Amino acid sequence: SQMVEVDVAGRPGGAVSLAVGMASIFSALPGMSGLMAYWYQFALVFEALFILTTIDTGTRVGRYLVQEMAGKVYAPFRQINWIPGVIMSSGLVVGAWTYLIGTGSISTIWPMFGAANQLLGMLALCIGTTVLIKMWKSPYLWVTALPMLFVGVITLTGSYQMFWMFLRKAAALAAGQAFSLYLDAVLVAAVAVLGLIVLSDSLRQWYGYVVLKKPFTSSEVVVVAGGGSAGRMQTAICQHNDEGCKFKLPHGTGCC
Hints:
- It is built from six helices and four strands.
- It has helices spanning 14-27, 36-71, 83-103, 106-134, 142-171, 175-211; strands at 216-224, 232-241, 244-249, 252-255.
- The chain has a four-stranded antiparallel sheet, with no helix packed on it.
């Protein structure tokens, strides 16, 4: 408390411990020994911004997913500007993470967030690998494929361990108290299985494109003659094979 000039007694764990630890590290830098109180406040602001932006982005993406799924049952839900759909889907997502916060703790929510976040990174690297293949940059696949496999193996292993951890904790509690832990286990398993499906299907497709040399189709923006000295840009469906790339436009074809 004396070092950060704030009374932190009775506030163990979580944000306060992280802020004190970050302040200790930064204040150990040359010339920063007298700024620990400043670094403590800086760390708290950093945590708040990180948490708020994560909740905002997660809620927004969750709303889009809910609207897309609900749109298969009731078409107006697919319209992201339809106010009733926005309110209902946003309320559902907010209610879901509010329930997790109210029934869990940092010891359960933080590992789940970490697993989902790292699997998202794996999917981003998976998309990058696909883009490299479609750009005919196969010699550089290791740049994205190796980090993707590294992150994927570690995160899926951690998700497997976390799944059984939640089940063991739930088995030791009464039925009413164990529900939230069973829900956590289901959520972790769902995220891990979906990530594994995307990864396995991507590996199958990459094997066909890179090893078996199967032709593939992509949507690309190409410049066609006309419309000024620089030409005009149109979205084309490009078919790639060993002979190169041929694209189809609404009014003709050409070569990339």
